[in-house]
Design a protein that fits this description.
The protein has 264 residues and is mainly alpha-helical. It contains eight helices and two strands. Strands 1-2 form a two-stranded antiparallel ribbon.
Length: 264
């Protein structure tokens, strides 16, 4: 029972949190190379749309968790000589510390740009390559047939599909270019979580871990374990597939920026 609850907490809360931090760091490194190579304002030109999506996701989740919105700026050009304020946008909000719902909401508000960003990237890739969307079903079915266990066959299925990830349909070149610009902008401007948001999320994250672990302890007691496995597998596959693709794209962009930095 304890092992089951611990596994659920690690798979659905702790590992995703680590992947969010990895995505944040990869985005920061790519953006740093961009600024060092093409100048301070390049992050506005390349990542401006991503910044707007970033701030809108903060705003949306803050409203969902009933926070009070104090002020919003979706995109701004900071004075690059002012080291005290480098933010490209902001959503300032307040909440009641007496409300568990609003307090735990800080975890989702703080990480909203990564969550929304990977969803948008997935939707775009699914549109550009319809077979990409079916990969989730194949992997989930493979795991369910193995009673929730990830084995070598699952990894082989994932690796065999790698070559199909970015095969896009050349139906409308202008549309494809626009969609790839959105993906690039999200990677540069949408994933870099601020230190303030991470600090605000820290204690709420601990509360979320404790809550998830406590609720998971009840699943075996209520004999719901077998019926929940298909749902849990599908959710887990969605989470890790979305993160995997975003991390892969960010690694490619970091490599590209490294090459451009060497050239220029």
């Amino acid at each position: 029972m304890v092992i089951y609850a611990l596994a659920i907490t690690i798979i659905f809360i702790i590992f995703p949190a680590l992947l969010i931090l990895l995505i944040k760091q990869l985005s920061y490194l790519a953006n740093e190379k961009l600024v060092n190579t093409f100048g301070f304002n390049s992050q506005i030109y390349v990542g401006g749309l991503g910044v707007i999506i970033h701030e809108l996701s903060h705003l949306l989740l803050a409203l969902i968790f009933l926070h009070h919105i104090d002020s919003v700026c979706l995109l701004r050009i900071p004075n690059h000589n002012d080291i005290s304020d480098k933010s490209l946008g902001y959503v300032r909000h307040s909440w009641s510390s007496r409300s568990i719902y609003q307090t735990i909401g800080n975890v989702f508000i703080g990480t909203a740009p990564v969550i929304c960003g990977v969803l948008i990237i997935f939707l775009i890739l699914s549109k550009l390559n319809p077979t990409f969307a079916s990969l989730h079903s194949s992997i989930a079915q493979q795991i369910i047939s193995n009673k929730g266990i990830v084995n070598a066959d699952t990894y082989r299925l994932l690796l065999s599909s790698l070559g199909q990830f970015f095969q896009i349909r050349l139906t409308s070149v202008p549309t494809i270019i626009f969609e790839l610009i959105i993906i690039t902008s999200i990677c540069f401007g949408g994933f870099d979580l601020s230190h303030a948001y991470l600090q605000a999320s820290k204690y709420a994250f601990i509360s979320l871990v404790v809550l998830t672990f406590s609720v998971s302890l009840l699943v075996p007691v209520l004999s719901m374990q077998a019926s929940l496995i298909p749902l849990l597998v599908n959710v887990a596959v969605w989470i890790y597939l979305l993160f995997f693709i975003s991390i892969f794209i960010l690694l490619v962009l970091n490599l590209l920026m490294f090459i451009l930095k060497m050239i220029f």
